[in-house]
Amino acid sequence: MKVPKFLVFIGLSMVMLLAACGASDQAKEIVEYHNSYLKNVNDKGEQLDKIIKQSLQEANPQAAYQMQKEKAMPIVQEITDYMKAQEPKTDVVKELHQMRLDQFEKWEKGIKMKFDAVKQMGEGISQQKTKKLVNKANEELKKAIELGKKADEKFLELAEEYNIELDTEQSN
C-alpha cells in the first residue's frame, strides 16, 4: 500500500497571512479565519500525516490499525470538530467556510474509508477487496482535493479583493 500524503488532501494553502491592510470587518475576519485554519488544521494535519506514515510501516495490519485507531483517528475527529465549530460572522467568510466544510466532509469520509480498509486487512480480507476499498477512499480524497483547490482559489480572491498582505513562505 502506497504511503499517502494526507496533507495534500486537506487542501493546505502554503500562504500565511501577515495582516489586513484594510481595516474592514471582512478583511479582519478573513485573516483570523485563515490563520486559525492554518494553526488548527495544518498543524494537526502534519501530526496525522506522520502517524499514518508510521502506522503503515508496521509489519502487521492489526498493529497498523491499532496505531491509527488510538493516535490518528482522534486527530481526524479534532479537525472535524474544529471545522464544525467555526461560526463565521461575515458573508464572505461564511462562503469560504462552507467551501472548507464541503472539502472536509469528503476528506473525513475518505480517511475513514482508508482506516476501515486497514481494519479489514487486519481481519484477513483479500488484497483485491482491500484494493477496492482503498480505491473508493481515494476517489473521495480526490474530490476533497478538488474542493480544497476551489476553496484556496476563493481565499486568494478574497485576499486580493480585501487588500490582505500575504507571506508566501511554505509552512512545512
TrEMBL record:
Keyword Signal: yes
Signal peptide bounds: 1-27
Any coiled-coil regions, as ranges: 127-154
This protein's UniProt keywords: Coiled coil, Signal
Record keyword Coiled coil present: yes
Protein's recorded name: Lipoprotein
Organism: Virgibacillus siamensis
The organism's taxonomic lineage, starting at the top: Bacteria, Bacillati, Bacillota, Bacilli, Bacillales
